[in-house]
Amino acid sequence: MKKLITFISVLTLMSTFSAPFPSSAAEKVVPADIDPAAYEQLIRQSWVTDPDNDSIMTEEELSQASSIYLDLTDVKSIDWLPKAAECSDLHLRNGSFTDLSVIKDMKLSYLYIENTPVEDLSFLRDMDSLDILSVKKLSLSDISFIKDMKELTYCEIQEMDHISMSQRLEVANFSSDLTIEKGFSEEAFMMPLNLFGLTPVRFVIEDTDIATTPNLPLAETGYVAEIYGKNTGTTNYSVYVDDEKVYSGKITVTDCDVYSPELHDTVPDAKICNWYNGILDAACISDGVLYGFSGDKVITRADDVKDYSFIPKSNSKDDLDHEYILKNDGTLLIDGNELPEKYSGICEKYFYNDKGGLYTFCDTGSNTVTEIADDFREFADNYKSFYISVKGELIRYSWNIGTDGKAYITRTPTGFRDLLDNKGNYILDKDHVLWKYPYFLDEEPQKTAENVVKLVHRQTGSFTDEYVYFTEDGKVFRASDGKEITLTDKTSAEILGYKDKGLFTGGIVGLQKVGGTKAPEKDNSTIKYWIGNDNVLHIDNCGRHCSISDAEEFICFKQIQGKKDGYAYFLRTDGSIWQFNTLTDQFREMVSCGIPKNTTVMGDVNGDGEVLVSDLVAMQNWLLGREELKAPEAADLNGDGTADIFDLIALRKKLIC
């Protein structure tokens, strides 16, 4: 009797604690209640439909699936599709369904339909979330609903020849008339993108002195054209599809407000030293003073500086950051440590002296300074792979760090002397033969062309720069494949009328959401700048426009981590360093550097105030007796009291580095 009472007591106690003794029913996982053929396909897409990898797709897992790909051939029902509440990407192919409206309440951003007998998709006009629509091999004949899909960015109609060009034009949406501030840009567009497939689309502006696009005349603009205001006035633009004008609009360019603070009675004597990605990191040498940029501050780093270089660990052999400061007396500081020898120049992670020595630095614990060559005269255009020896021969070189921590140098004489030109891995020899060097040292150079008179690196397309060469008969060829091409008379910079342009923080300006008659929305973190040929700096700060006069060159952009403040730095034409605060839209002078206006800028032999390739050409012609120098006092770059071939070499080094 006592045993029975005890047993009953235990059962009573157990009934009050359900968690430690789960029932078998609680452990059972129930599959989603959908069409069996569809279930078989979706369970094979386990990365989205079965994240716990238990080979069962539950109702909850179905509701959270972000994408669904279905072949409807054997599927009997699709009424369950709205259960996929989180699905944004839906692909439907084949089958016999003539009505797909069951998906009308799904929050899709991408819909792909192929080879189904559906004839009516008008329900899509109410799907405000749909961003991309792709239809292929459908008997669908009415596409008028597309006109009402105001949020649709991209529409692809494939292998449906019964949809005419006029039908497509009827559903296209165009930008309205544009009003643009001088120095800034707005986007003209035809939406949705890709509506006409591979058929070319062009935006043509009537008066390109008032407004223009960066696209070259031979290039297609596509469905969106960024139109820049060059000068005040009014003009028209037209949209062409396969050379047929389909739309016209008006462009009005208005004046912009330009802040014009007073200049100092000085001129710039500055060198911008960029590294990493060029825009985010930089230093500036002005009148021998090295300035650095840290958030909202300009810091004086060193005095009596001739040159500067910074190599981030991503570009160094030892996976360490390295800083090079070359003083005017030849003293070289690497990471703050002074080297015992004197040097005449630096170029990125390389440094050299007047005795033919070319060196590099790698902190491996031994042999930190490594001699690359003892016959160095100057760098070739591709200074990372080639140099010119004291005898005038092109030498190819490479170096690596072995597992023993030692540097191993490879030098290969090419046999080429007295080159007419060299750019990148292309060599134009004295016999007018163009050669291309492969990237691997053990491969021989390849003859690319004969009778070449000029080798250049220039813009060949709207956003493409390439090496091209000219032959004696006046033809132009692309160096990479030898294909004859036609160059336009002007580059994008010449068409738009700017000397510098770029963007920072948000990456490339892109379409975030475009729809119907709405203008494309721009990346709200992207800031664009451009310096016109009139030296006005225009900054498009996420749609807010700011301009300042007498800008010379953009330096860099810095942001304080964890804060919204961003700071753009630039030089003005008096040599002063200025800052633009992207949070407050305020300009302010940071350093009033520069040199007196009548000071000679060494290397500026044509007297235009800047040291450019044109000075190198002028000095070369002067040495050959072809022309006189406008500023001969600027020709003695090495300071030995005589202007000669050695100063030409020094000028070439200055321009390369």
What are its keywords?
657 residues; mainly beta; Immunoglobulin-like; Type 1 dockerin domain; 48 strands; globular
Radius of gyration: 33 Å
Q: What's the helical proportion of residues?
A: 10-25%
How would you classify the helix and strand content by structural class?
A: mainly beta
Q: Separation of termini?
A: 103 Å
Using DSSP, what is the number of strands? 48
Question: Please, what is the average pLDDT?
Answer: 84
Q: In one word, what is the shape? A: globular
Residue share in β-strands: 35-45%
Domain Dockerin: 598-657
Pfam families: Dockerin_1
Protein name: Dockerin domain-containing protein
GO molecular function, one term: hydrolase activity, hydrolyzing O-glycosyl compounds
Provide a descriptive summary of the structure in words.
This protein is mainly beta and 657 residues long. 11% of the residues lie in helices and 38% in strands. Among the domains are: 172-254, Immunoglobulin-like, CATH 2.60.40; 420-490, no CATH class; 600-656, Type 1 dockerin domain, CATH 1.10.1330. It has a 5-stranded parallel β-sheet. Helix 8 (613-623) runs antiparallel to helix 9 (645-656). It is globular. The relative contact order is 0.08. Residues 598-657 form the Dockerin domain. This is Dockerin domain-containing protein. Keywords: Signal.
Chart the SSEs and their pairings.
Layout: H1 2-15, H2 24-27, H3 36-43, H4 46-49, H5 59-63, E1 67-71, E2 89-93, E3 110-114, E4 132-136, E5 154-158, H6 165-171, E6 173-174, E7 178-181, E8 185-191, E9 201-205, E10 211-212, E11 224-229, E12 233-241, E13 244-254, E14 266-267, E15 270-274, E16 282-286, E17 289-294, E18 297-302, E19 305-311, E20 322-327, E21 331-334, E22 337-342, E23 345-347, E24 350-352, E25 358-361, E26 369-373, E27 376-379, E28 386-389, E29 393-401, E30 407-417, E31 421-423, E32 426-428, E33 434-436, E34 446-449, E35 452-461, E36 464-471, E37 476-478, H7 492-496, E38 498-504, E39 511-513, E40 521-522, E41 527-532, E42 537-541, E43 544-548, E44 551-559, E45 566-572, E46 577-581, E47 586-591, E48 595-596, H8 613-623, H9 645-656
Parallel strand pairs: 1-2, 2-3, 3-4, 4-5, 7-13
Antiparallel strand pairs: 6-8, 8-11, 9-12, 10-11, 12-13, 14-48, 15-16, 16-17, 17-18, 19-20, 20-21, 21-22, 23-24, 24-25, 25-26, 27-28, 28-29, 29-30, 31-32, 32-33, 33-34, 35-36, 36-37, 38-41, 39-40, 41-42, 42-43, 44-45, 45-46, 46-47
